[in-house]
Structures are given as structure tokens and as C-alpha cells.
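Fold this sequence, please.
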Amino acid sequence: MIADQHSPATHDVMRQRIEELGPWFHNLRLNGIETAPNHFLGDYPGIKFQHFRDAIPSDLTGKSVLDIGCNAGFYSLEMKRRGAERVLGIDTDEHYLRQARFAAEVTGADVEFRRMPVWNVGGLGERFDLVIFMGVLYHLRHPLLALDLIHEHVAKDLLLFQSMQRGSSDIVEVAEDYDFNASCPFNEPGYPKMHFIEHRYSHDETNWWIPNRACVEALLRSSGFVVDSRPEDEVYLCRWKPIEVPPDGPHCVYPKRGSAEC
């Protein structure tokens, strides 16, 4: 932790360093200074976290946490405050990782941050009591593969999941099978749908897929996660369960060869 944090000189140094590390997507409070006070979503992600913070165990003593797509480390730092023994945050953006490491240094949190894509989690060689996978799915070209990799290689118990959703929030009851010539509910608003973004959505070229609610829940089930609760419209707390190998072979759950770093 940075010494003499309350002195005026240190306060000025802190503010300057925060500005140098900007822009910030996570609004953190570091020694009383907000990193993104003018965030277009407000006090984000704190304002969102208020809606589901009680769904996560308040005491994580002795537990391990993997935060995939950790950004500046808001959730990683929060899980450490709840007593988690080991917290690992991964992201592909070195800009965000520099912010996260700085925030951990300032707060004195023993949190590890690595540059790593979700595709490489098999190389970690360990499972975690809680995996956080929030705000990442819709940025991936291969979202179901990501969930399969998480289930097969790093999840052990809880998954905290969030995805942007568009379309209907209804859920149509889907049959186990349909005859080729039978009428199917594909055009129903509540049928699982994933909207493909060929170019950009919200001016962001990394937005590839946006599911509706039925699709999110179907993806989670298909990957071996049981929804325990839905504490917020787009947020799910799930539990890991074993899955049988389907007749056409196992899911694509290969680990990355060699180093886990990207």
C-alpha cells in the first residue's frame, strides 16, 4: 500500500497517477479519489453491484476466485474484501490490467492479475470456488466455447454470470425434440435467440452476439451450469454440475498448449 496516503502531497500524486492511467471504465474509490466520476452509466459498476451483492456469500474465507474479464478489478477487489484466500483476475487488455494492479497496490489487496484470454483458462491447471464471468460473453466470437472451457477447466462450484440481453424476456417451453416437418416455436419471442452483430453495436466493434433471456439460460444449462438465482435482470448465480459426454463426442474443451499467458 502506498505510504502516507492521507498527506496532501500523496493525494496530489494519487490523482495524477489515476489521470495517467485513464480512461477508466470502472469507477473505483482509491484513497477517496474516484477513478471515473463522470461515467456515462453513473457510479459503475458499484451502482449495478448493489442489486446483486447479497446473492454472493459475504464470507469467502478460504475460497478461491477467478475473475474473467476483470477490467480494473472492481469485483476482484470486492471478493478479496470478503475474505477470499486467492483471487486471480484475467483480462486481455493491458491498459485495464495496469489500472487493476495499481488499485491493488493502493488498497493493499493481495490480488494477482494476468493478461490472458478466456480461451487459455485450461492452462491454469486449477479450479476455483467462484468464477466471475460478467460483461464478457457478448464480446466473444465463440461464446458457447467459452462457457464450455470454463465448465471443464476452472469452475468448481459457483459461477457469477452476466450478459447484455436484447429482445424478449419471455421464455417459451421448448420440447426435447421436434419432428423435421413439425411446427416449431422458432419465431416465438421467447424462443432462445442469439442476435449476431456483423459490424458494430453501441459503436463497439467487439460486440458480436447479444442473446435474449431464454438464450442466456439455455446456454448456461447446455454448458453444465444450474441457475440458483437471478438477482438482477441480466445477472445469474449458477452452480457447476457434471455433464455427460454427448453422443457426438465431448464439447470443445481443450486447454491451450504451452504457457497460459496470451
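DSSP finds six helices and eleven strands in the chain. Residues 126 and 154 are 6 Å apart (CA to CA).
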